[in-house]
Structure to design on (155 residues):
């Protein structure tokens, strides 16, 4: 329970760094559409850019490597951050999962959906919490300055 609360706290801190409300269309694109786009070889969603801002590989106590990559979904027209996408990979399963961290001013239904989806989507709350905590601790004041954030990326 403590880990789940830390994850929720981390998500709300990241929420506060976006500049505009996340729409349901943007939420669905991040959680479902982006994966479909990659699998089908389609172009990026018109009117948006995806900026990678942090990547980290973590090995759990179970010996499983998990990779987390955070992206900002940026609206091309005004360069505002619509939301953040976390790509989660459990490397032993070779499956990718996509989570959305919407703006904190978004509709309550989107915020509630994100919390419910994100908490139960990963198989290691420890790893997800550590990943989010690293992002917050490393540069929390400049996270909204995409793309020049200054995070280091692990290969």
């Amino acid at each position: 329970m403590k880990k789940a609360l830390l994850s929720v706290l981390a998500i709300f801190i990241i929420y506060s760094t976006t500049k505009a409300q996340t729409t349901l269309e943007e939420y669905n694109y991040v959680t479902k559409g982006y994966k479909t786009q990659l699998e089908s070889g389609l172009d990026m969603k018109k009117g948006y850019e995806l900026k990678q801002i942090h990547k980290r590989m973590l090995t759990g106590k179970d010996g499983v490597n998990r990779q987390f990559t955070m992206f900002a979904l940026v609206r091309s027209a005004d360069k505002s951050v619509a939301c953040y996408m976390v790509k989660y990979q459990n490397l032993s399963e070779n499956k990718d999962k996509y989570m959305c961290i919407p703006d904190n001013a978004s509709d309550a239904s989107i915020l509630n959906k994100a919390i419910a989806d994100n908490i139960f989507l990963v198989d290691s709350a420890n790893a997800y919490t550590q990943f989010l905590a690293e992002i917050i601790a490393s540069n929390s004041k400049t996270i909204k300055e995409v793309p020049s954030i200054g995070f280091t990326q692990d290969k």
Summary: The radius of gyration is 15 Å. Residues 13-18, 139-155 have pLDDT under 50 and may be disordered. The helical segments are 2-15, 24-40, 108-121, 125-139. Strands lie at 48-59, 65-75, 81-90, 95-102.
